[in-house]
Amino acid sequence: MPFAPTEVTMTTNPLVTFKDVDYAILLGMPRREGMQRKDLLRANVGIFKEQGDALDRVAKKSVKVVVVGNPANTNALICAHYAPSIPSRQFTALTRLDENRAKAQLASCTGVAVENVKNVCIWGNHSNTQLPDVAHGYLVAGDREVPVADYVADKSYLQGEFIKTVAMRGAAIIAARKLSSAMSAAKAVADHVRDWHLGTPNGEFVSMAVISDGNMYGVPPGLVYSFPVAIDKKGGHRIVSGLDVSPFARAKLDATTAELQEEKREAFDHIVHQVAAVPAVTAKPVMHGAQPATPAQGSSVSTN
């Protein structure tokens, strides 16, 4: 159902930001030129821990969360972990940007309109270990549906340069403009939320990083992993089952799984070290006649 915002509120207080929200789109700190993924992970881990806690406290329990800030998969996992009262399946990470890039590459080399490239999906992490997969994709040409593998003559391209171009596009954008992607990322968020809200057409699937529990593709539970998903008209998503995975794809899926497991370990180790580094605060008694302390800048005081 279409809707229009009735109010826009700007605030730095997450408890205000997330109060009774239906959708939360989380950005975090952007990647800059020269930053490694580990730098970004350490910068964002505290942000997504705080946002998860705030969502848990004040958001609707039906809230749908889209994590955009990188490393998006692991940030979504952290956020979900610190919002235990919200079902983990309602936390997702954005890999639609990668899917859109993959479809654009195929449209460019085949001459087919990008909206007529269907069922191309992204497996795994939103990183250069991802697998842009065309094995189940097809192109709509007139009244025909032609498998991508039949339309693209150069098979080595689909397992080589095509994958590299899509997986490395983020780094190429940063190198070119010294900043991460902007409008293309915003368009991908809009596509992600639209399909989550309205559902996907029958027979079609899209890429979405979701909790890996219960998948049939050998991905261990406890990760946020990009799969092909279908979404019903009520917003319920499911991992598409029964897709063949070639030996080539299996090796790629295992590699991106290993990276996500390492990111998960490092993220939670960093949180533990952050907590351990915070010095204990001992309350000091207020002497008779003393004035109460003035709240520090950035803190808030509520009164009844």
From TrEMBL:
<dbReference type="InterPro" id="IPR001252">
    <property type="entry name" value="Malate_DH_AS"/>
</dbReference>
<dbReference type="Pfam" id="PF00056">
    <property type="entry name" value="Ldh_1_N"/>
</dbReference>
<dbReference type="InterPro" id="IPR015955">
    <property type="entry name" value="Lactate_DH/Glyco_Ohase_4_C"/>
</dbReference>
<feature type="domain" description="Lactate/malate dehydrogenase C-terminal">
    <location>
        <begin position="95"/>
        <end position="269"/>
    </location>
</feature>
<dbReference type="InterPro" id="IPR010945">
    <property type="entry name" value="Malate_DH_type2"/>
</dbReference>
<feature type="binding site">
    <location>
        <position position="31"/>
    </location>
    <ligand>
        <name>substrate</name>
    </ligand>
</feature>
<feature type="binding site">
    <location>
        <position position="101"/>
    </location>
    <ligand>
        <name>substrate</name>
    </ligand>
</feature>
<comment type="similarity">
    <text>Belongs to the LDH/MDH superfamily. MDH type 2 family.</text>
</comment>
<keyword id="KW-0560">Oxidoreductase</keyword>
<feature type="binding site">
    <location>
        <position position="37"/>
    </location>
    <ligand>
        <name>substrate</name>
    </ligand>
</feature>
<feature type="active site" description="Proton acceptor">
    <location>
        <position position="126"/>
    </location>
</feature>
<dbReference type="InterPro" id="IPR036291">
    <property type="entry name" value="NAD(P)-bd_dom_sf"/>
</dbReference>
<feature type="binding site">
    <location>
        <position position="44"/>
    </location>
    <ligand>
        <name>NAD(+)</name>
    </ligand>
</feature>
<dbReference type="InterPro" id="IPR022383">
    <property type="entry name" value="Lactate/malate_DH_C"/>
</dbReference>
<feature type="binding site">
    <location>
        <position position="70"/>
    </location>
    <ligand>
        <name>substrate</name>
    </ligand>
</feature>
<dbReference type="GO" id="GO:0006108">
    <property type="term" value="P:malate metabolic process"/>
</dbReference>
<feature type="binding site">
    <location>
        <begin position="68"/>
        <end position="70"/>
    </location>
    <ligand>
        <name>NAD(+)</name>
    </ligand>
</feature>
<keyword id="KW-0520">NAD</keyword>
<keyword id="KW-0816">Tricarboxylic acid cycle</keyword>
<dbReference type="InterPro" id="IPR001557">
    <property type="entry name" value="L-lactate/malate_DH"/>
</dbReference>
<dbReference type="GO" id="GO:0006099">
    <property type="term" value="P:tricarboxylic acid cycle"/>
</dbReference>
<dbReference type="InterPro" id="IPR001236">
    <property type="entry name" value="Lactate/malate_DH_N"/>
</dbReference>
<dbReference type="Pfam" id="PF02866">
    <property type="entry name" value="Ldh_1_C"/>
</dbReference>
<protein>
    <recommendedName>
        <fullName>Malate dehydrogenase</fullName>
        <ecNumber>1.1.1.37</ecNumber>
    </recommendedName>
</protein>
<feature type="domain" description="Lactate/malate dehydrogenase N-terminal">
    <location>
        <begin position="3"/>
        <end position="91"/>
    </location>
</feature>
<dbReference type="GO" id="GO:0030060">
    <property type="term" value="F:L-malate dehydrogenase (NAD+) activity"/>
</dbReference>
